[in-house]
Amino acid sequence: MAFEKEKENAAAAAIEFVEDGMTVGLGTGSTAKFFVEMLAEEIADGLMVKGVPTSEDTRRLAESLGVPLLPIEHVDRIHLTVDGADEVDGDAQLIKGGGAALLREKIIANASDLMVVIADPSKVVDVLGAFPLPVEVTPFGYTITAKKVFDALKAAGVIRPKIDVRTAGGSKPLVTDGGNYILDCQCGVIPDAPKAAALLSNVPGVVEHGLFIGMARTVIVGDEDGASVIE
Ligand code: 5RP
């Protein structure tokens, strides 16, 4: 895996934000995995926290490591969420959803007192948009919704396929934890992320999009030797 040490160091710095008694949103992806593993070690050493997973993958990981979890319906406060990102710009605006978990990630980040993003240096950009923007849509009418989304963004795009490990390809759409499909939109650049977010929210059939604006307050970028915290 690329940038393994950088991801691990970012996750280690995020552990410093966790305090006894917290309810912690657990992100999804390879960087967040390091955080969940380190949190499990802290819990084994006596830290008292409960986790709220942002995906079924993270739920399975956390359960396998003995991290106590709360069902989202039983949560009245999330003190901290630690999650990765596909891109982060200088205003802590994010593209997320590379792991198809953007809907639960956004619900949980938005409900948190603090969202901390953990990233390796390849995720830091001047302007969002080189990473294809994930947009989650309902299966009903998805071809119509896709056209409206691509027109709104003036972007080309594809329905994300479910990768079949046996054939290393896939023609069926990937289905998210919420039972929806993902459009990956090749924007190139997104000069005005709030405007793009507003356009997407106006398209019927769009469940959620991967632009996270005004949610992350702290960004931790790992390097080979440690990490920089940007607040
Ligand atoms: C999942 C996400 C991930 O946080 C994002 O894709 C980053 O993943 P990784 O840490 O593996 O690079 O948004 O939906």
UniProtKB/TrEMBL annotation:
**Which pathway is recorded for this entry?**
Carbohydrate degradation; pentose phosphate pathway; D-ribose 5-phosphate from D-ribulose 5-phosphate (non-oxidative stage): step 1/1
Q: Which reaction does it catalyse?
A: aldehydo-D-ribose 5-phosphate = D-ribulose 5-phosphate
Query: Which amino acid positions bind substrate, per UniProt?
Result: 28-31, 83-86, 96-99, 123
Tell me the keywords, alphabetical order: Isomerase
Q: Where is the active site?
A: 105
Recorded hits in InterPro entries, A to Z, give:
NagB/RpiA_transferase-like, Ribose-5P_isomerase, Ribose5P_isomerase_typA_subgr, Ribose5P_isomerase_type_A
- EC numbers listed for it are 5.3.1.6
Q: Name one GO molecular function term.
A: isomerase activity
- Broadest EC class? isomerase
Report the superkingdom from the record: Bacteria
Name the NCBIfam families for this protein. PRK00702.1, rpiA
How is this protein organized at the quaternary level? Homodimer.
Family indicated by similarity: Belongs to the ribose 5-phosphate isomerase family.
State its role. Catalyzes the reversible conversion of ribose-5-phosphate to ribulose 5-phosphate.
Under which name does UniProt file this protein?
Ribose-5-phosphate isomerase A
**In which organism is this protein found?**
Henriciella pelagia
- Underlying gene: rpiA
